[in-house]
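Margin note: ligand = S-adenosylmethionine.
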Amino acid sequence: MRKMEEKDYNKDLKQRHSKITFQKSGLYCWETPQDFFDKLNKEFNFTLDVCANEENHKCDIYFSEEDDGLSKDWGDNICWMNPPYGNKISKWVKKAFEESNKKALVVCLLPSRTDTRWWWDYCMKGEIRFIKGRLKFKGRNTKGEMVNGPATFPSAIVVFNRK
Ligand SMILES: C[S@@+](CC[C@H](N)C(=O)[O-])C[C@H]1O[C@@H](n2cnc3c(N)ncnc32)[C@H](O)[C@@H]1O
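Resulting structure:
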């Protein structure tokens, strides 16, 4: 049932936002607005972007889809995580939580989907900062053009501090 809901949610996103970047992995990429990231970076001084590509990485050091950030050790980095919004999002949130139980500090930009299991299993154990209003994301469309798109969902920052 939960899987069906996630699938329908993604299908709906796809239909309503055909302009937003569609990754080769089949996931949407909602790139973090630079000014939004800059404010958080002033507070945290990020050292690793755990999911990014050559074009949208927010830190000099980053993991791409080819590297597969999910399979890496995030060490003692101060990590920025704006994950791909597909059915793997729960894996990313779980990974962020687990890495913070080791040595990493992880700051996540997430859709505030308080109706999901991953929200209750992991996000509720972090520091949650709900974002007022909606973020304007950007990304490339299928023609390779950079487009801006207001989110169709509310977002939140979730901080998993080192234990
Ligand atoms: C929502 S975008 C965030 C991009 C950027 N980090 C930012 O904050 O604007 C998610 C990115 O994760 C990348 N990605 C997808 N699967 C990944 C994986 N397994 N490991 C690392 N990066 C991945 C995508 O290519 C995409 O660029």
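Confidence is low (pLDDT under 50) at residues 16-27.
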